[in-house]
Design goal:
Strand order of the largest sheet: 2-1-3-4
Largest sheet: 4 strands, mixed
Number of strands: 6
Helix content: 55-70%
Order of helices and strands: EHEHEEHHHHHHHHHEEHHH
Number of domains: 3
Structural class: alpha+beta
Length: 337
């Protein structure tokens, strides 16, 4: 497929949190782009540019291509710095990046767990994925769509193990989801975005996972019943706009510190560090106690690299005096040093 379009082209999927994350970034920045579903119609272009079999893929106006949502956004931020997606304050910028990392690496677990554990969610997701893949085919009938959805469901459900979802870890994952919603609901009572009146990298990462949850029957019903402000924020993040300035940590701390303490410090970083130790030891599985309950899964090499990058980001903060105090209060500091 060839095109004369001179803006960016995002090949993604509506059910991919990382695709939605990148799309919202483009919308916030006002960058000219086309949003294209990965389907039969775009597969040739995707295969021509992709180094990984994953969406999103961003094809740049110069013909180069990028994948992996976080480094992709960081590269685009260097090219298009206004409006900024990160706070100018180095302490807030790191906290925003920390929340984004938590969302990408741990927040994906509740999303994937709910989507492929419960039958109504399995059927809904499989059908929507099939519809997206076959959208460019005018002759698709109901039987073909049902067959494709069945194939997708059969392929995806066994992948629950990949994110550590199992009957033994169900309570840990679902408790994390409910806890996150409770914290966000209180925090978003006084502000439109996580750090104040404009979105940050942390918003992009966290919203993208919860957008997927909101679209699925089981977690979506939980969110609508228990977290209406969070649902409103998720909707706002589909096309985010600066509505004012960011807030200082002193204003954010009463309701944002619980997210850092009870989720990032108590759940995500212990899990991430245990995975990294297991990868370094050459182990294929690992187990860690989270909230007093065992959590076991296969080791993930990418997550180990991601933790190393997060620690390097922390080390690069020139003045960590205020940051270290916050991270210590949140139980995060020892995991990052």
């Amino acid at each position: 497929m060839t095109t004369s379009y001179r803006g960016y082209r995002i090949i993604g999927a509506e059910l991919s949190p990382y695709s939605i994350k990148v799309r919202s970034y483009f919308r916030y920045k006002g960058l000219p782009h086309e949003w294209l579903l990965r389907s039969a119609a775009t597969e040739a272009e995707f295969q021509r540019h992709a180094k990984l079999p994953l969406v999103p893929l961003v094809v740049c106006p110069d013909g180069s291509a990028m994948q992996d949502s976080t480094p992709l956004i960081e590269r685009l931020e260097e090219r298009h710095p206004e409006p900024p997606i990160q706070p100018a304050d180095a302490t807030l910028a790191f906290l925003s990046a920390l929340i984004e990392e938590y969302a990408d690496e741990w927040g994906n677990k509740p999303m994937f767990h709910y989507r492929w554990t419960y039958e109504p969610d399995q059927d809904s997701a499989a059908r929507r994925i099939a519809e997206g893949m076959m959208s460019a085919s005018p002759d698709v009938d109901a039987d073909a769509l049902a067959a494709a959805a069945g194939t997708i469901k059969t392929r995806m459900v066994p992948r629950l193990a990949f994110v550590g979802s199992s009957p033994a870890t169900l309570d840990v994952i679902e408790a994390s989801f409910h806890r996150q919603l409770t914290i966000l609901e209180r925090h978003l009572e006084r502000r439109p975005y996580l750090f104040g009146a404009r979105p940050t990298l942390g918003d992009l990462g966290l919203y993208a996972q919860l957008y997927q949850c909101a679209s699925d029957p089981t977690p979506g019903a939980i969110m609508r019943a228990q977290a209406p402000r969070t649902v409103a924020w998720v909707t706002r993040m589909l096309d985010p706009r600066a509505e004012g300035e960011l807030e200082p940590w002193s204003a954010l701390a009463p309701t944002l510190l619980p997210l850092l303490r009870d989720e990032v410090g108590a759940v995500f970083l212990p899990w991430s560090a245990a995975n990294a130790r297991a990868v370094a030891a050459g182990e294929k599985t690992f187990s860690v106690a989270l909230g007093g309950k065992p959590f076991s899964q296969e080791t993930q090499r990418y997550h180990a690299k991601s933790l190393a990058a997060l620690r390097a980001r922390y080390a690069a903060v020139a003045d960590r005096g205020a940051l270290d105090g916050i991270l210590r209060d949140a139980g995060c500091l020892s995991w990052l040093q």
